[in-house]
Description:
By secondary structure, the protein is an alpha/beta fold. It folds into 2 domains: 7-105 and 227-245, Rossmann fold (3-Layer(aba) Sandwich); 115-224, Glutaconate Coenzyme A-transferase, CATH 3.40.1080. The protein has 7 helices and 12 strands. The chain has a 6-stranded parallel β-sheet, with helices on both faces. A 6-stranded parallel β-sheet has the order 6-11-10-7-8-9. Strand 10, helix 6 (209-217) and strand 11 (221-224) form a beta-alpha-beta unit. Helix 2 (57-67) crosses helix 3 (82-95) and helix 5 (182-191) crosses helix 6. It is elongated, with a radius of gyration of 19 Å. Bound molecules: NADP nicotinamide-adenine-dinucleotide phosphate. NADP nicotinamide-adenine-dinucleotide phosphate binds at residues 11-14, 35-37, 39, 54-57, 61, 77-78, 80-84, 87, 139.
Amino acid sequence: MRAPAETILILGGTSEAAEIATALVARGARRVISSLAGRTRRPAPLPGETRIGGFGGVAGFVAYIRSEHVDTLVDATHPFAAAISANASKASHLAGVRLLALDRPAWQKRHDDAWSIVASLEEAAAVIPPGATVLLALGSQHLDAFNGRKDADFLVRMVDPPDGPLNLARYRIILGRPSPDAAREADLLRDNAVTHIVCRNSGGVGAYAKIEAARRLRLPVIMVDRPAAPTGGQRFDTVDALLTAL
Length: 246
Ligand code: NAP
């Protein structure tokens, strides 16, 4: 595979973005910059350069692209990170650089899955039955929608400990990342007497084990559907397809 002789900016914060950075550096790309929003306190180190923090909207993004002489922009952000993907589409157009984007396929409901599909976190909060014990498999910035539910117990999984109490009436915290092993996820659900899971349809393999565990335990999953798919640039379903086009 050829080594791209250019400056490639990868919008990251996902395992796929890390895979892309690793592959490009291994391929001998001239300059690879991974951009993170800065939501995780100690992000895992990435090959190539890393920059952290917002660009300051579309204008700031265009200015960054120009000042760093970026030739190619790769949007490998999370499917629910809609604002940065929209900005990437506009900024690449305004700055006249190539945009390649990864559209991670959504999970598909199987006949033996008990999913309620909802359009928003607010709708997810509304359909939780009273007395439920709910695993909120969501980022810590998405919990406020559930603070009106004082009649349910929440189990909140977080990568970093919170700075203070959470804005929820009844909750427990489990620190750590989701396990990729469905048996371990099933143990966690069983040990904590979880009756429902709330999650977003992120797709990908990393977070799927809880869905498989719920299926095994016949637990209902309240699945928040994706925002409208972003548009613009060349779009790919897999990391391999995107890397081939670079
Ligand atoms: P978002 O709502 O789409 O973005 C909000 C703002 O954060 C953007 O306008 C931008 O600020 C800044 N930003 C977001 N991603 C950035 C990046 N990769 N590099 C530089 N600035 C970035 O995004 P989000 O949902 O908060 O997600 C933030 C990051 O976490 C993304 O990189 C995403 O891949 C990752 N992530 C998100 C989720 C999720 O559930 N949303 C899950 C896993 C990982 P400015 O306008 O100032 O440029």
